[in-house]
Please model this.
Amino acid sequence: MLEVKNLNCFRSNQKIISDLSFDLNKGEVIEILGKNGSGKTTLLRSILGLTREKEGLVNWKGVSIKKNSHDFLSHSFYQGHSLAVKTRLTVVENIVLNPYSMNREKSEIKDALARVGLKDKERRVLSQLSIGQRKRVSIARWILSEAEIFLIDEPFSNLDEEGSNLIKDLIEELTNKGCSFLLTGHKSSDQNYKHLNLD
Amino acid sequence: MKNSTLNSLLYLVLKRDLVLSFRRTSTYLTPLAFFLVVLTFFPLALGTDSNFLQRIGPGVLWISALLSSLLAVEGIFNDDYKDGTLDQMFLSNQPAFLLIIAKVFSHWLITGAPILLASIIGVIFFFLPSSAVFPLLLSLTLGTLILSFFSAFGGAISLGKGAILSAIIVLPFSVPILLLGTSVTNAALNGDDYSGFLFFLGALFVLVMPFISLATAEALRINND
Model:
């Protein structure tokens, strides 16, 4: 599905990822581990094309991502550190007014919010919610996005045990449907995921 | 982003920015209040001689509009940059410069349009004749729209930095707009034909909209890298 070959990533002309190769297959989860500054976020952003200083080959479904970026971006979901949530919008508005989860039926949105434990907080403004609850809004978008590949930066940070379990269950559910995940983190989530260490 | 067509994304950007701006009153009230306060200071400081105020009126209105629009420069992209929404714009599979046009238009509706309406008060303050109202409003509409595009460019170049830098970038670009805008109203006041100046402003708007949007998209890409 996603093939990375001899990838070098740079930040301010400094090489921070050197000669990295891996394959992400359908229904597979790879957890990229490393300490701060090891290049986990840069790797995700390089694959997506948000960071342009890179060398090497990234293929999506057998075709170079440079030629196939439209298809790749149509089927990918990216969640960075900052979650792309607006604290002055309500929970529902953050779903409806986001490109990943727009144009969805009300019932689907209700179900997704119930799935992430925000059933009673649909009309609450995000500034009134905790950081963990804001993260759940972002997780509801995973369900609604219909993506095939998810690139998620530190999905388990700022979450309690219940929240972490929710993510693990959701990842299992989505991988069973054929979705793939590229996750980053400082330490392993103790799941049966493939690991890639950048240290 | 499977569900995102260009039209739906443009609508989304416009609606989201308008909702967010209306929820933070300072976004539109600060430039508007600043504009009205500056306009009020001139008759207070320079006296109420109607001929003198009429002569300086167009220039004062334009300078006030220019300075007021600078107050909102920082907010165009900084929030989206900080909360990660800007990434989604570049991952949306749609031309970023078109989404920027939608953002600039919503910025204008929030900051430029209220100034435009408030300039009618300026017409009363500066004893401008009714014959000057239409050309003034038309030139201010075009001028504030162009200023919004320059503000977006300034905001993109100084992404994540202070508003002062944006203002310094935007000010030199706004000189031709200031000259053309005041010329329209002065020509109308003197009973001359002002259509030539208006055509120039219109042509400038047509040129600025695509080119500055493209430059803004590139500046954002570089600074968001």
